[in-house]
UniProtKB/TrEMBL annotation:
The lineage of its organism: Bacteria, Pseudomonadati, Bacteroidota, Bacteroidia, Marinilabiliales. It is an enzyme of class 1 (oxidoreductase). Destroys radicals which are normally produced within the cells and which are toxic to biological systems. Its EC number is 1.15.1.1. Belongs to the iron/manganese superoxide dismutase family. It catalyses: 2 superoxide + 2 H(+) = H2O2 + O2. It comes from the Bacteria. Keywords: Iron, Metal-binding, Oxidoreductase. The keyword GTP-binding does not apply. It comes from Ancylomarina salipaludis. GO terms for molecular function: metal ion binding; superoxide dismutase activity. InterPro entries: Mn/Fe_SOD, Mn/Fe_SOD_BS, Mn/Fe_SOD_C, Mn/Fe_SOD_N, Mn/Fe_SOD_N_sf, SOD_C_sf. This is Superoxide dismutase. Mn(2+) binds at H27, H74, D157, H161.
Length: 194
């Protein structure tokens, strides 16, 4: 099975001024593509050659895991962005965030803090556990919550390649911009399909 990048549901310049076209050309067009290319090369002739992405993530390690997880993580991140996004969720997701974090603003603060304080490269996730309780977790490098029996709902990429062209080393500014692009409708659907 050949793993390919999904087509973005927006133009490369559509997230400006929060994420530039140049950043997406590199982040999506080069970094994300390189993970897919590497994965396809690494699985050729192995037991993972015809496996789907989640099976590879759950059963592999080393380079195969790293590239498979990065394909998944980046796709999960990019698909949950949209031009003129932001605001706050509605319905069951909103209620669950208030239940889990006390308020939507508290959730935003905790999620942003997790992103700003993650040392090195990695991801911040909103996940649901087996009881559908929401949690915020950090994963380093290509870490993925599926490996810990958690269901990902939303993620933020805090590798420097996600923001360096736009905000240089100012990760908190990138995180602030992220809140202006979230596609809450898609994230609500992910939550409701748990």
């Amino acid at each position: 099975m050949k793993h390919e990048l999904p087509k973005l549901p927006y133009a490369l310049d559509a997230l400006e001024p929060f994420i530039s076209e140049r950043t997406l050309e590199f982040h999506y067009g080069k970094h994300h593509q390189a993970y897919a290319n590497n994965l396809n090369n690494l699985i050729e002739g192995t037991s993972f050659e015809n496996a789907d992405l989640i099976d590879i993530i759950m059963k592999s390690d080393g380079g195969i895991f790293n590239n498979a997880a990065q394909v998944y993580n980046h796709t999960f991140y990019f698909m949950a962005l949209k031009p003129r996004g932001g605001g706050q969720p509605r319905g069951k997701l909103y209620d669950a965030l208030v239940y889990s974090f006390g308020s939507f603003d508290n959730f935003k603060t905790e999620f942003s803090k997790a992103g700003a304080t993650l040392f090195g490269s990695g991801w911040v996730w909103l996940v649901a556990d087996k009881k559908n309780k929401l949690r915020i977790i950090q994963t380093s490098n290509a870490g993925n919550p599926l490996c810990d029996d958690l269901v990902p709902i939303m993620t933020l990429d805090v590798w420097e390649h996600a923001y360096y062209l736009d905000t240089q080393n100012a990760r908190p500014k990138y995180i602030e911009n992220f809140w202006e692009l979230i596609n809450w409708e898609l994230i609500e659907t992910r939550f409701e399909n748990l």
